[in-house]
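A.,

Following up on our hallway conversation. Structure tokens first:
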């Protein structure tokens, strides 16, 4: 149980860091990096959109949400940020491990 709690806290820290990366990248004008971040989220977003359409309609309140380009791009960005958060959480988890 302590390992699960520690990993959850590390994941939260990783998500916070990756969430802060977006405004920093925008301020620096690195929109190409943001586009790469969105591109990394495309495969997982596509898999998530294969879930039943009624689920997406209830979640978003948009008719035919699985085929809506705005929902798709937002989900791609969220998946990219989540992947970056997980990648940042793993080294934080390893650094915090006591031997």
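Then the amino acids I'd put at each of the 99 positions:
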């Amino acid at each position: 149980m302590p390992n699960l709690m520690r990993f959850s806290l590390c994941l939260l820290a990783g998500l916070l860091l990756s969430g802060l990366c977006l405004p920093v990248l925008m301020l620096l004008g690195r929109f190409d990096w943001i586009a790469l971040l969105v591109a990394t989220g495309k495969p997982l977003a596509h898999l998530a959109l294969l879930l039943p359409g009624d689920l997406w309609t209830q979640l978003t309140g948009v008719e035919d949400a699985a085929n809506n380009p705005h929902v798709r791009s937002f989900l791609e960005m969220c998946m990219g940020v989540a992947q970056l958060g997980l990648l940042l959480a793993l080294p934080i988890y390893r650094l915090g491990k006591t031997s």
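The mean pLDDT is 90. Curious whether your intuition agrees with the design.

B.
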